[in-house]
Amino acid sequence: MTRKRAKLCAWLVGAAAAMSASSASAVMLAEDADTICKGLVGGADAVKIDSATLQAPSQLAVAERGPTPSGRITPANPGFCKVLGHIDPVDPKAPPIKFQVNLPVEWNGRSVQYGGGGFNGVLITGLALPPAYPFDKPSPLARGFVTYGTDSGHESKPGEPPQLFALNDEAFENFAHRAYKKVRDVAVALMQRAYGKKPEKMYFMGSSEGGREGLTMAQRYPDDFDGIFARVPVINWVGLQHAGTRSGLVTMGDGWINPAQVKLVGDAVRAACDKADGSNDALVQDPVTCKAAFKVGTLRCASGKTGDQCLTDAQIKAIDTLHATYKFPFALANGLDDYPGWGVSGEDTPAIGPTGGWVAWWLGTAPPAQPPAPNNGIAWIYGAGGIQYVFARDPKLDVPTYKVEEHKARILEVSNLMDSTNPDLSRFRERKGKLIILEHMADYAQSPYAGIRYFESVERLMGSATTELFARLYTAPGVDHVGSGAPANVDMLSVLVDWVEKDQAPGDLEVAEQKVEAPAFPVVRALPLCRWPAWPHYKAGSVTEASSYFCAQ
C-alpha cells in the first residue's frame, strides 16, 4: 500500500500542463490547497459543483448508539477537500443526482466509490468505514484514497415511503445504474482537475443494495473499476421484493411468530447443528448442511396446545415458506424465474435497527400491517412498498390482492434495470478486473443463496479455471445482514489492492468480531473466512481463535 503521494495542487482544467503525482515540481504548500479546493466550485452543462471546502484533519469518534456497530464509528480523517455537487435531471420532475467527493491533501493515486443501501435516498459521503472494514484500521481517505458516493438520484423525506421516487422513470433508472456511472465519471474529472492526472486504480465497495451496485458496475460498465467488493449483494432484486412480500403475507394472521418463539427456533437450530463442525461454540459453521438437517416440524405444538415453547401449524407453514424457493410464472432477466429461500441459523440474533435476525428483518415486533408500520419487519416494509410503488405503481394497492401475472410487463422492465444477475463477466475479466463477493449466512434481509447461485452461474458460463483468475466468493457463518452475530470484519480493500496491483490472489482469509471500544477495538473472536464451498472446521484450541479451525468442504 506504499507509494509516493500527490499533494492537492492547482492544475485545473485549462492548465498549461498536467504533471505526475510523484513530480518533484508538484505544489507542496498546504495553504495552496484551500485556494485550489475553492476553485473547483461552479460547472457547466448538467454537472454543478455547489461547494468545495478544505477540511481540517479530524480525530476518531465513537457514538453511544448507531444503526449498526460500524455506524457508531467516525474514523479519523486527514485534511481533504470536501466537494458537494449535483447532476441536473433531464426530466424536470425528476430529482437531481447528488454526490460528495473527498480529495485528500495527500493522494495515493487511487479512489474508492462507496455503494448505498436499502432504497438509497441518503447521500453516501465516503467518510465512513466501508463494508466489513476492521474498526481499528485507518479509513480509505486516511490511507490516501479519494472517496466518493451519491444519493443515487433521489432524497428520502421523513414520513414518506422510501420507494416513492420509483414513480418517476428517470429517478428509478438513476437508482438502477445510471447514477453510479455518472458520479464515477464526475469523480474522475475532479481528480484530474485537482491533481493534474486521472486515478491509476479505481475500486468500488458496497454492501446490500451497494453490493448490487458493485455487481452492476462489473456487468454494465466493466471498464470503469479495477477492483470491486460486493458484500451481501441484492443480486436478484425483483425476486427479493416478491419473496420478502410473500414471507410477510404468510405471517399476517396466525402465522406470526413472537420473539420468544424466535428464540425457541434459534435454540433448536443450534441444538441440531452447532456441534457438527467438532466444536461447541454456539455457532453453526455449515448452514447449508444444517438447512437440510433441521426439521422445524419437531417444534410443532401437541394437539390443542399453544404457547411460547412450541409452534402452531400456521407458524410452521410460515417458516417453511421463508425457507422455500419463490417461483415466478415467467422468466426474469438472464433467464431466472425464481428466488432461493432463506437459510437457517442466527434466527434470534438481537434486533437493534437493521442489525439482527428474524425480529429485525422478517417478523418485527408486531404482525405485518397495511400500510406497513414502523414495528413491522424491514422486509415487509421494503417488499410491500416495492409492490405498490415499483411494480403496480399504485400507492393505494391492497398488497394481498397483488397478482404477479397482471404486472408481467412492468416486472420484466424492472428486472432488466435492477437485477444484477448477468453471469457474463468476460469484459471485466479481460481488462484484469477483480471481484470479491461476501455472503453472510445468517442474513435475513436477502438470501445468501442468491449470491452463491450467481457465483456458480459465472463458473458454469466462464469455467471454474477462468473464474478463479478474477473472482472469489466467501461465506461467513452466523453473520447477519450488516455484520453482527459472528466474526465479520476483514480488510477487503487491502485484499483487492494486493490482487489488482500485485497479482496476489487471495486464498482463505480471516474475519474478526470486535468490540466497539476505541481506540483498540479488541477482537472478541476470530474465524477463518473460507472460500466457497468450504466451511470452518474445528481442530483444537480456543473456539475464539481462528487458528483453532481449518477450511474444508
Short description:
The chain is α/β, with parallel strands linked by helices and 553 residues long.
How many H/I helices?
14
Helix content: 25-40%
Order of adjacent strands in the largest pleated sheet: 2-5-6-9-8-10-11-14-15-17-16
- Extract low-pLDDT stretches: 10-30
Strand content: 15-25%
Summarize the structure in words.
- The chain is built from 14 helices and 19 strands.
- By secondary structure, it is α/β, with parallel strands linked by helices.
- The strands form 5 sheets. It has an 11-stranded mixed sheet, with helices on both faces. A two-stranded antiparallel sheet has the order 1-7.
- α3 links the parallel β10 and β11.
- α2 crosses α3.
- The two termini are 33 Å apart.
- About 4% of the residues have low confidence.
Note the main attributes of this structure.
single chain, 553 residues, alpha/beta, eleven-stranded mixed beta sheet, two-stranded antiparallel sheet, 14 helices, 29% helix
